[in-house]
Specification:
Strand order of the largest sheet of chain A: 1-2
Shape of chain B: globular
Number of helices of chain B: 12
Low-confidence stretches of chain B: none
Number of strands of chain A: 2
CATH topology of the largest domain in chain B: Rossmann fold
CATH superfamily of the largest domain in chain B: P-loop containing nucleotide triphosphate hydrolases
Helix content of chain B: 25-40%
CATH architecture of the largest domain in chain B: 3-Layer(aba) Sandwich
Shape of chain A: globular
Distance between the termini of chain A: 39 Å
Radius of gyration of chain B: 25 Å
Order of helices and strands of chain B: EHEEHEHEHHHEHEHEEHEHEEHEH
Radius of gyration of chain A: 20 Å
Oligomer: heterodimer
Chain lengths: ~270, ~325
């Protein structure tokens, strides 16, 4: 009985993921532009570092090969963690379309998370070709992890980052309960992420004090930390600490999002009929 | 019989922010906002029994939609006790949600860029409808509404009428016991309005569903609902049989006359208020209680070819009720 319930529930969110995916294909221009943006970002980072390494063999303690491998890996992880559909949440609340979700036996968070998973799968599937092309242009050294545990730990770090990123986005979306003006704080947040998550450069090129301060924020755990785990450049203690911080931030952001939801839903006025 | 919907002393107040016009008003509002409490629903009570089809009528802003939203669990009431199917709606329990449906004429649940069939399949998963039940209900609804040919066409390519039919199917696939219809015929042409009405009636009898319907079109209510609840300014003005509204509120009757000979309008005005006069026809409004006496007087004093004593149209009575506030 319990198994059947779980199965039905899983099926429900699988169908949601599928329909989100199908719907995504109707907005193919947006999707292609998003991919172009991701690829340009990656090319800019790779070209930047290639030109720096043209005149020196090491920079900030990194060799050229190690840096390119880092950028390549960090961006792949970035594709996975940061692809999301939650940008629609605030307008759904503000327009009153939330009513359509609230009357159904649905978990609003799981609904959007399923959409996010669909989006990530779509991005992964399409980025494979682009990454192959970039690989042949920049020849980053492919780093094959030496321990099978590394793959498991990376998966754990990426999953934690995905959940944390989802809840952060949900918090921005849920602001829609109180203001239609969600764009500005979201923009500011993305600007901070741009410099502090590690997609352009490994954060350990910063002075130690900054690295230490950043390690208490959620940003390094989005791309920098999972990449370092994958490239086996962290000690066991650093991995455990990083995973604990990822978990703690994911939990905190989750609590924040759930609190906003339970308060917001009481102020919701289901406008627009 | 135990009621399926019970509303006791429902109140719902909104906090509304008031902005002065113009740019200065917007700037001022940045620093100090003035809020005002609006009583959307103010102490409404009613009970609805299983299988009833009740019309909920009132002018714009009367509180109809707010009440439906509270009953659907979208809004938390300011005060009052509400039970639908034995549940408190705003707890939003899945067992409750699987037994009712809300159709809003101005909100679409169909995925705009995909064929309606995809939304049906999604709802099948969301409501966890077993395969056999899904096929059976879908076939029945598709036949009733005659939309077999459009289910696999992108929703945005459909006409408003076709879309509304598909909206209804999406809302009814899980065989809800209680159905809230908020302006289901809005924007539809007269033919499509009739199709919708026939369907709602059919659904009510075939599935034994309890239906609460709001509409601006009196024809919807007249044709479908034996019982109506009239609200205005958040207050209930009337709850009972449609026919009883006439008995309760109609102050006048209409004498419809066809004259045999030319007559003078001035003289006609001694009978009652002349609403229209274009020889040989005239309509005269007379006090309800004196209708028979004045009709007799009319027959006596004028040369009449035909005379009918009619009730005023229900729309006019309800309009009077709203205009007079009671």
């Amino acid at each position: 009985m319990g198994n059947k319930l779980l199965l039905n529930s899983l099926k429900k969110y699988w169908v949601i993921a599928k329909i989100t995916w199908m719907n995504g294909f109707t907005y193919i221009t947006s999707f292609v532009m998003w991919r172009v943006r991701q690829i340009i970002q990656m090319i800019v980072a790779l070209s930047l570092w290639e030109s720096i390494f043209a005149s020196t063999t090491t920079a900030f303690g990194y060799t050229s090969a190690r840096m390119l491998t880092y950028i390549f890996a960090a961006n792949i992880i970035g594709f996975i963690v940061t692809s999301s559909r939650t940008i629609g949440v605030s307008s759904i609340i503000h327009s009153g379309d939330l009513s359509l979700y609230l009357v159904k036996p649905l978990n609003f968070f799981l609904y959007w998370f399923s959409g996010d998973i669909a989006d990530k799968l779509q991005n992964i599937a399409f980025s494979l070709t682009e990454l192959t092309v970039l690989f042949f242009i920049f020849h980053p050294t492919l780093y094959i992890p030496t321990h099978i545990a590394t793959l498991f730990l990376t998966l754990l770090a990426v999953s934690g980052a995905t959940v944390m990123y989802f809840f952060i986005n949900m918090m921005f979306g849920l602001l829609g309960f109180w203001t239609p003006d969600v764009w500005a704080p979201r923009f500011l947040f993305f600007t901070v992420i741009f410099f502090t998550s590690g997609s352009f450069f490994p954060l350990d090129i910063f002075p130690k004090i900054i690295v230490d301060i950043l390690s208490y924020t959620p940003f390094p755990y989005m791309m920098f930390f999972p990449t370092k785990v994958l490239l086996e450049q962290l000690s066991s203690i650093e991995i455990v600490r990083g995973l604990l911080f990822t978990g703690a931030w994911a939990t905190l952001c989750g609590l924040g999002a759930f609190t906003m939801w339970s308060r917001g839903i009481r102020t919701y006025e289901a406008e627009g009929r | 019989m135990e009621s399926i919907i019970s509303v006791q002393h429902l109140k719902k107040y909104y906090k509304v922010y008031k902005k002065q016009p113009g740019l200065m008003g917007s700037l001022k509002a940045l620093f100090a906002r003035k809020y005002e409490s609006v009583q959307a629903v103010n102490d409404i009570s009613f009970e609805i029994e299983p299988g009833e089809l009740v019309g909920f009528i009132g002018p714009n802003g009367a509180g109809k939609t707010t009440t439906l939203k509270v009953l659907s669990g979208l809004l938390y009431p300011t005060a009052g006790e509400i039970s639908v199917l034995g549940f408190t709606p705003w707890d939003r329990k899945p067992e409750f949600q699987k037994q009712f449906s809300l159709v809003m004429g101005q909100k679409n649940q169909l995925w705009w860029d995909l064929p309606a069939m995809e939304t049906f399949l999604l709802n099948k998963a969301i409501y966890e409808i077993p395969d056999a039940q899904y096929k059976h209900t879908l076939n029945k609804l598709v036949t009733l509404l005659d939309v077999k040919d459009v289910m696999n066409i992108q929703v945005r390519k459909l006409s408003l009428g076709q879309r509304m039919k598909c909206e209804l199917i999406a809302a009814l696939l899980h065989n809800p016991k209680v159905l809230f219809l908020d302006e289901p015929t809005i924007g539809l042409d007269v033919v499509m309005q009739k199709v919708m009405r026939d369907f709602v009636r059919e659904y009510n009898t075939t599935f034994g569903a309890t239906i609460l319907l709001t509409s601006h079109y009196m024809d919807d209510v007249k044709e479908l609902c034996k019982r109506v609840i009239i609200i205005d300014h958040g207050k209930k003005l009337f709850d009972g049989k449609l026919q009883d509204i006439i008995d309760k509120y109609a102050k006048n009757k209409i004498l419809s006359v066809v004259f045999a000979k030319e007559t003078d309008q001035k003289k006609l005005e001694t009978i009652g208020k002349v609403k229209s006069f274009e020889f040989p026809s005239a309509t005269i409004l007379v006090p309800r209680k004196e209708a028979s006496r004045l009709a007799a007087k009319l027959l006596e004093d004028f040369s009449i070819a035909d005379l009918n004593i009619e009730e005023p149209p229900i729309e006019a009575i309800i309009r009077d009720v709203f205009q007079n506030g009671k």
